[in-house]
Specification:
With about 425 residues, the protein is α+β, with helices and mostly antiparallel strands. Helix content is about 40%, strand content about 15%. A seven-stranded mixed sheet has the order 5-2-1-9-10-14-11, sandwiched between helices. Strands 6-7-8 form a three-stranded antiparallel sheet.
Length: about 425
């Protein structure tokens, strides 16, 4: 195909080559599954060989036909292999986590546990409180009296038989202080950036975001008044997120994309939102938020992962990473919380308008009994803030959204009474979102 090949023809060739590799190398699947893929692939290859000149519409028609013919069979053929790989990855991660826990206990001379007794890293940082209420920009939690009677539940966890009451809730921190001082991290200012280095590993962050982290740290870590551990904790925070993003330029930035500041201002003024369900110390707008990593983010105001946060009242913003599994788990969590609470509770959710096919989370929210309204922001007419906003230049922070954004208002009756999506509020939100 080296003679007269066109860019869109190359796409078809790559597609066909992929199908050929799957048929020849896949371990599973029956002959009935392989034959349609092989026949459709050979037919498409013959058409490419015969056709020297063809229009873009003809190419797209053949490619769509190929996808329709082969797609379901390819998915069924490789699903078992993909499942096996995912299960293996989970098992390896679990084993590595237990090994790290054991090494940690040896290093700090903590009581040892057998591997079966080791909890996941996230579970070890769970707070004592069970559920939370958000009111007047403050978070309160439902906790238990110290002398309550308990009984063991059917799932092995402890349940309580006394009524809960509200009390103060603080950001997540390690429940056992580190018994030694943190290592010294070198901090250098390089123009408008700050470089933090330790053990030949360096990270840079824009000066404004370094100042923001210091402000959050002073608010949530008053015990470290002299900022003795601040630099080390910032270095740990940056190392964690850089590991999650990846090492390539701009890799993984979509995981931490956020709404424009003007949208947050409207959410605060019109809907009394004062907490984010998916954020980090680097991209948060409010000083209280849920984030992925309780151990590194807690010093900067994180309340821990959303799925382990149980609010009973308040108005929240949710802009999840665009992972279908996570978005569906989010909807499950929100609906359970709204079902359980008779206090004002509201979640304003932003997800991509993916319709080919629609995501399970989108379908669930469109049919949810708690959906008070949904609103669409058209593609290419609005922007998001980059997940790398803490390192890129100011003129590179915003990027145009190539997909529509759906805004869902999930509210119980009491929440709708306080923060319902009226026409005036929707107009203000749309005006803040649409790119000027």
């Amino acid at each position: 195909f080296s003679v007269g090949i066109t860019p869109h023809c190359m796409v078809d060739v790559i597609y066909l080559s992929t199908f050929t590799c799957i048929v020849s190398s896949s371990r599973g699947g029956s002959a009935a599954q392989r034959k349609p893929i092989k026949w459709s692939t050979e037919e498409a290859l013959q058409w490419l060989r015969r056709s020297q000149m063809y229009t873009k519409e003809e190419f797209e028609s053949h490619l769509d036909h190929l996808k329709a013919q082969c797609g379901p069979h390819v998915k069924e053929l490789v699903s078992q292999s993909v499942d096996e790989v995912c299960i293996k990855m989970v098992e390896l991660a679990d084993e590595e986590g237990k090994t790290l826990c054991q090494e940690h206990r040896k290093l700090f001379q903590l009581p040892s546990h057998s591997p079966s007794e080791l909890k996941s890293p996230t579970e070890r940082f769970l707070p004592m409180s069970r559920s939370f209420s958000l009111s007047n920009s403050e978070v309160t939690s439902q906790t238990e009296e110290e002398d309550v009677d308990t009984e063991e539940g059917v799932d092995g966890r402890w349940t309580y038989d006394k009524a809960e009451h509200t009390g103060p809730c603080y950001q997540i921190k390690l429940n056992r202080p580190i018994p030694c001082s943190l290592p010294l991290v070198a901090v250098e200012k390089e123009g408008e950036r700050v470089r933090l280095s330790y053990n030949n590993v360096s990270h840079t962050v824009n000066q404004t975001y370094f100042d923001k982290l210091e402000m959050l740290y002073r608010i949530h870590c008053p015990e470290d008044e002299d900022l003795m551990d601040f630099d080390a904790r910032v270095w740990c925070l940056l190392t964690r997120y850089q590991t999650m993003f990846g090492v390539k330029l701009h890799e993984g930035s979509g995981l931490q994309g956020s709404l424009p500041l003007s949208v947050f201002q409207v959410l605060k003024e019109q809907f009394s939102v004062s907490m984010e369900c998916f954020a980090s110390p680097l991209n948060c707008y409010f000083r209280q938020y849920c984030s992925a990593f309780a151990d590194t983010d807690g010093y900067f105001g994180s309340r821990g992962p959303l799925l382990q946060f149980f609010p009973v009242s308040g108005s929240f913003e949710a802009n999840p990473p665009f992972s279908e599994e996570l978005m569906e788990a989010m909807v499950n969590h929100f609906e359970a919380l709204l079902e359980a609470s008779d206090k004002p509770l509201s979640f304003i959710v932003f997800i991509p308008d993916w319709r080919d096919p629609p995501t399970p989370a989108l379908v669930r929210m469109e049919n949810s009994k708690f959906k008070q309204r949904q609103h669409k922001i058209p593609a290419y007419e609005h922007e998001y803030r980059s997940g790398h906003q803490h390192v890129v230049a100011e003129n590179e922070v915003l990027y145009k959204a190539v997909h529509g954004t759906l805004v869902f208002f999930l509210q119980n009756d009491a929440g709708f009474g306080l923060w319902g999506p009226t026409e005036e509020r929707i107009a203000a939100l749309t005006k803040a979102f649409i790119r000027q």
